[in-house]
Amino acid sequence: MRGRAVTFRADPFQDGPAAALVHEPDALIVIEDGHIAAFGPHDALRPTLPEGTPVTTYPRAVISAGFVDTHVHYPQLPMIAAYGEQLLEWLERYTFPTEARYADAGYAARVARRFLRELLRAGTTTAAVYCTVHPQSVDAFFTESARLDTRMVAGKVLMDRNAPDALRDTAQGGYDDSLALIDRWHGNGRQLYAVTPRFAATSTERQLDLAGSLLRQRDGLFMQTHLSENVAEVEWIRRLFPSRRSYLDVYAHAGLVGPRGVLGHGVHVDEDTFHTCHATGCAMAHCPTSNLFLGSGAFRLFDALDPRRPVRVGLGTDMGAGTSLSQLQTLNEAYKVAQSTGRRLHPVQAFWLATAGGARSLHLDDRIGTIAPGIEADLCVLDPYATPLMAQRAEECDTIEDLLFVLMMLGDDRSVRATYVAGALAHDRDHDPDHDRDAPPAE
Ligand code: GUN
Ligand code: ZN
C-alpha cells in the first residue's frame, strides 16, 4: 500500500509530539501473510519488491494503524441515543430491557454482524467488547469476529444481583459459563477473552472472587469492568462494600486489578487509585462521549498520565452510552473535555491514544497499534477531504499536525476511506452498499 502514513515510535505524552510521531509523506507499506513486512519511504522500498507485486495507492489520504476502542457494548447498538437519564436510571430504563433480547441467539448474531460492520466503517480494527449475561451473545460475537478475522477482546457479562431476573446469572453458573467460553474462544485465531464482571453493584463478593479465580485459570486473559463513573454509583458502591478503602479496592481485593485489566471511566477517583493502576499495569478507558452524554463528569486525562506515575489509558466509545462508534468523534469530545479541565490534547497525543496507546493499554502493542515490521496489518485509510467543509479546511493545512487535528475535529465514518484487517480489505467506503441510500437494506 502506498500513501502518506503516520505512526509512532514513542509515547507523545512522555517524550513530546515531535519525538513520538513518525510521518512518511510518501510511504510504502509492504504486507505479507497478514503482517507488515516492511515500512518506509516509497522510493527506497519499491525496488526491493518482486516485479509484479500489486500496489494499492491512496492519494490525498492519511494511512494509520487501525483504531483501538478499549470499551464498548455491542448489545447496546439498538439503544444508542436513549433520551434523558443519567447512569443508574439509564441502566434500568433502557439498557437492561435491551440486553434481555440477547437470550435469542439469532438476534444476537444479527446485531453482532451489524456492530462489527459499523466498527470497520469507523476504522476500528480492535475493541474490548462487553456482550450480555447470555453465553450465546458471546458465541454470536466471536463467531462473526472470527469470520472477519478481526482481533477482538470480549466476554460474557457477570451479573448475579441488582438486575432483572432475566439478566441474572449465579456466581457458580457465571464461572462455569465463562470457563467454557474461554476454552472455546480465548486464543482461537485472533480472538481473546475478557472476564467481565459488569460492575461492583451487580456482582456479589463471591462472584467477584470467582472472577478473580477465572483469571488465574488460563494465561493471557483480560478483565474488564466499570469504575467510578457517576457520583450516585460511587455512593452506592460505598454502601455495598463498607469495609473497602475505595471503589478500586473492591476489585483489587478480588484479584481483578493487574495487567490486561481495563477499567471503564474512572471519572471520580483519587490519587491512590491512579497510583495503584500505574503500579499494577491495569488500564483505564477514557470515554468522553459517554461521560458527556450521561452527565457523568470529566475524566482527568492529564492527571492519569502524569509522567511521574503514568496510568495506561486507552480511548473508549462506550457505545450505547457513548454516542458514536467513531474514534475521530471520540477524540473530538476528548479534546473538549481536556479544554474544560484547562488542558490541551495535542493531535499527535490524540492519535496515539486512539492507536498505539490503546494497544499499549491492552498490553497488545507487540501485535497491533503501529505500522512497523512484524505488526499485524490492521490499517485504516483516512480521507481529510471527505466533506466540502473538511476539504476547504484541509486545503489550509501546512503541517501533518494540523491535518490530523482537522480529521479529529471534523471527521467521522465519512472520512474512513478504507479499513484493512490482517492485510485484507474489510471496508471500502466508495464501494459499500450501506453507503448508497437507494440500495435495499443489507439484511
Ligand atoms: N455501568 C454498569 N453498566 C454500564 C453500562 O452498560 N454502561 C455504562 N456506561 N456504565 C455502566
Ligand atoms: Zn460501559
From TrEMBL:
Positions of the Amidohydrolase-related domain: 63-423
EC number per UniProt: 3.5.4.3
One Pfam family per UniProt: Amidohydro_1
Any one Gene Ontology molecular-function term assigned to this protein's record: guanine deaminase activity
Pathway: Purine metabolism; guanine degradation; xanthine from guanine: step 1/1
InterPro entries per record: Amidohydro-rel, Guanine_deaminase, Metal-dep_hydrolase_composite, Metal_Hydrolase, Metallo-dep_hydrolases
Cofactor-binding details, from the entry: Binds 1 zinc ion per subunit.
Any single GO BP term: guanine catabolic process
Function description: Catalyzes the hydrolytic deamination of guanine, producing xanthine and ammonia.
Name of the featured protein: Guanine deaminase
Gene: guaD
